Structure formats: C-alpha cells, structure tokens
Amino acid sequence: MSTPAFPLSTQLKTMTTSSNNVPSSSERRDFLKKSGVAAGAAAAAGFPSIISAQSVTNSLKVGLVGAGGRGSGAAAQALSADKNTVLTAVADIDQAIVSRAVTRLSGSQKFGTQVKVDNALFGLDAYDKVINSGVDVVLLASPPGFRPAHLKAAVDAGKHIFCEKPAATDAPGIRSVMESQKAAQAKNIALVCGFCWRYNNMISAAIEQVHGGALGRLVAHYSTYYTNPVKPMPPESARPAGMGDVEWQVRNWYNFVWLSGDSLVEQAVHNADKIMWVMKDQPPASCVSVGGRSVPANGGNIYDHFEANFVYPNGYRVFLANRQSTGCFNGTLDYVMGTEGTLFLGKGKPRIETPDGKIKWQWEGEEYDMYQKEHDVLFASIRSGKPKNDDLNLATSSLLAIMGRDAAYSGQEVTWEQAMNSTVSLLPTQMDMSAKFEAPGLAIPGRTKVS
Fold first, then answer.
1. Fold agreement between 25-197+374-391 and 199-366+397-421
2. Matching Pfam families, A to Z (predicted)?
3. pTM of the entire structure?
C-alpha cells in the first residue's frame, strides 16, 4: 500500500535453581548462552557514528512509528530525555492520526521546538519509510501484531530502538524478535523495551530483596491485573461503508487477537514480566489456564478474563489473573510468598511481612517516573557510546503471557517448549488495508489448536 507524505515543518531450557528457588547469576549466564541471545557485541564500524562516539553533542533524529496515545507519550519522553533530540518523522495508518500527534507534541512548551517533522507518513508500510528517513532512533509503538516486522526492519537498518511491549502476538513473532535481539546486540544497537516496571526504583528494590533471599524459599506468586475495558469494540453498524476488513480491525486493534494478543498478552504482560523478573527470567515448565468472555465481543475475538497457573520444575506455582470489566474490583497486585515472608506490591509502599504479620522490610524514598526513566537510560546509553540492550525479557516475558493465553484457548496443558515452538501464525496472509480477512471467532477450549 502506498504511503503518501505531507509536510508538517533456542528454544529456552529450564534450569535448576538455588536454595530460594531463584536462579543464580551463573545459571542466568548459562541460560543466555543456551538461548543464543548472549551474543558478543561486534565492533561498531559501518553503523551510525553515534554508536562508537565517547561523547556526542550532535542532535539525535527521532522517528515515531505508531502515533496514538502510547506512541505520542513515548515521543514526549524521548524529547524530554535529551535536549538535543529532534522528532523528524512520524508514521501511522492515516493523516489525521499523524497530524493530531504532531500538533499535540509541537504545542508543548517543554519540548515543542524539538518537533521538526519533515516526514509525516501514513499507511501500513509507512514504518519502513520512517526507519529509512535518516533518523538515528526509532520509537516502535504500533499494535503488537506488527512489532516483529517493525523491529526487524529497525535493527536491519542499524537504528537505536525503543520498542513497546509486548514483543509479538504469536510464537513465530517471538522467534523473529529473538533473532532481532541477537542482531541488535551484535551490532551494538541500543534496544530498550517498554517493560517499564524494570525501570521503577521501588519495584527494583523489592525484587532485589527477593533475589537476596529475604523471603526464604519461594512457594508461590499470585499476580492480578483487574481493570476496566480498554478499547471496547464498536458494533458492526458503526463500520463505514466500503471499509476493508483489515482496516476495520486495525482501527479497533485491541479487540482482535492477531493485533493485540488479547488482554493477557497486551496489558497483563506487565505482570508476566514481573513474574519472570522474580525468577531471573527462568521460564516455567508448563501452564494450565481458564478464560472466557462475559460481555459480547461485537465481532472482536478476545476474552475479557483469564487465570493462568504456571508450574516451575521445582514445584513453585505462579497464578496470573486478569479481567477487563466494569463495576468490578480492580487491582494491579502481586503477592510473592516464601517460607520467611510475603512481598506485597501494588497497594502502598512495597513491603515484606513475616508470617506473623510483622514488617520485615519496606521501601522508603521518592518514586521516579518509570516511563521517563526508560528513555533517560536509552538516550544516555547512546550518548555514552555504550548502548543499552534490554537482554532477553522483551521476548520471554511476552511468551509467558502468550503461553497462558494459549493454554486457556486450547483448554490443554501447554509446556514452555510447545509455546516456544508453535507454528501457528495469527497474522493475515495479505497485509493490505482493503484486504478481506474474516477474524476467527472466540477461541473454544477443547477445540482451538495453538501449536
């Protein structure tokens, strides 16, 4: 599809664990080597001069792919992170979305002068034109179904990257992302992903307590993401006459599994990332899940609730539940339970309580903006000549959520190896806005195939 412009000046193997069920540092290194992701960084010759420079004073040109709310927010944070950044290119599916984002960003008193968009592009292939428009850094914030292709194109072009979560919506996409991560490391490209809790100082301090043995032997982890519906699907009667299936679905992307991955993968993936973080990115052995749809989907095909039960080789159990519904109890909460205490995350300050209810540890300090911190770290690493690369969790935390979703869809026990090696691709074979693509109905446990 054309993209008119308008000027706007492995497979991963399980490991043995240490006495408190958390992998040791040496096991973590072995895990990375086995996965093939811990590739040594190659010399930066042939890549942008900003990679090898020890001190960079020139402006860094930034391109934004996906100009909705999250993308516009990422652009604002990128411009705030480095006063010598300039937003020069923006892409989305149509002119109105791009124009709205550029107008909003350029109107900011804080960084409006840094918005100098010469390339405003729209269409499904506009991402490639942004990546190849002369930018140094690319912000990837389109719907997750597009992310593997966008990430590969950015890495192939040698650009530094901020990549939103999740990494993909299916296993073939995850494997593509892992290959892109390996290539980014080999090229010494900065790649920071949108798992923002890893950039939160109070949560980081709490996880350090777990890794240091403050909970004793880990027993279980209960994690919830209960919230309201995110982007409810409009009825078919609201669809403009003549609009193609792909365009209708892209404009309502949250409601289609191939684009969003479903609620467990798109939103509760933050909880999946915390689960993996607690276990130093060791995957579980297997998962059994339940899920379904309480409110009519209006033609969409995502569930509005899940509960996944992950089992680790040592018997450690993790329960991840999410729900998107109105008028219900809401809470993004984590309870990490051990023989010597429980870590509470999500209500007030992170704290560890002993079995008799006494406070063993509580975080004290001023919480900083984790969304801004991601970009501060990204751009500081580029300027220092030591690009930050977010290691394995972009792919593996996303796969954990996909594993939980697929266990619910199929009604079967799903192993990590099955989740990783699934050949089921959710994307349309013809990626064109006018293309016909009838999305499958809601998954039916016991009938839906996921591998």
1. no
2. GFO_IDH_MocA
3. 0.89
Give the HSE-up count for residue 375: Cα atoms under 13 Å, Cβ half-sphere: 22
CB 291 within 8 A of CB 303: yes
Quick one: which of 274, 310, 287, 1 has its CA closest to 125? 1
- Give the whole-angstrom CA distance, residue 378 versus residue 259: 26
Do 197 and 274 meet the contact criterion of CB atoms below 8 Å apart?
A: yes
Beta bridge partners, 131, equal none
Tokens describing residue 111: 């960084």
Task: Specify the pLDDT at position 392.
Answer: 76
**For residue range 88-140, what is the model confidence (pLDDT) as tens digits?**
999 999 999 999 999 999 999 999 999 999 999 999 999 999 999 999 999 99
Q: How far is CA 174 from CA 165, 170, 381, 413, 425, in A?
A: 12, 6, 25, 20, 11
CATH superfamily ID and name for 199-366+397-421: Dihydrodipicolinate Reductase; domain 2 (3.30.360.10)
Helical pair 95-106 and 69-81, crossing angle rounded to 10 deg: 40
The pLDDT assigned to 21 comes to: 67
User: 392 with 181: CB under 8 angstroms?
Assistant: yes
Whether the predicted pLDDT of 23 surpasses 90: no
> Looking up tokens 């389109």, which residue turns up?
142
User: Scanning the structure block, which residue is given the tokens 């040592």?
Assistant: 314
* Domain map (residue ranges) of the chain: 25-197+374-391, 199-366+397-421
3-state secondary structure the chain: CCCCECCECCCCCCCCCCCCCCCCHHHHHHHHHHHCCCCCCCCCCCCCHHHHCCCCCCCEEEEEECCCHHHHHHHHHHHHHCCCEEEEEEEECCHHHHHHHHHHHHCCCCCHHHEEEEEEEECCCHHHHHHCCCCCEEEECCCHHHHHHHHHHHHHCCCEEEECCCCCCCHHHHHHHHHHHHHHHHCCCCEEECCHHHHCHHHHHHHHHHHCCCCCCEEEEEEEEEECCCCCCCCHHHCCCCCCHHHHHHHCHHHCHHHHCCHHHHCCHHHHHHHHHHCCCCCCCEEEEEEECCCCCCCCCCCCEEEEEEECCCCCEEEEEEEECCCCCCEEEEEEEECCEEEEECCCCCEEECCCCCEEEECCCCCCCHHHHHHHHHHHHHHHCCCCECCCHHHHHHHHHHHHHHHHHHCCCEEHHHHHHCCCCCCCCCCCCCCCCCCCCCCCCCCCCCC
CA distance 289 to 390: 29
Angstrom distance (rounded) from CA 139 to CA 71 = 7
**CATH number of the domain located at residue range(s) 25-197+374-391 in this protein:** 3.40.50.720
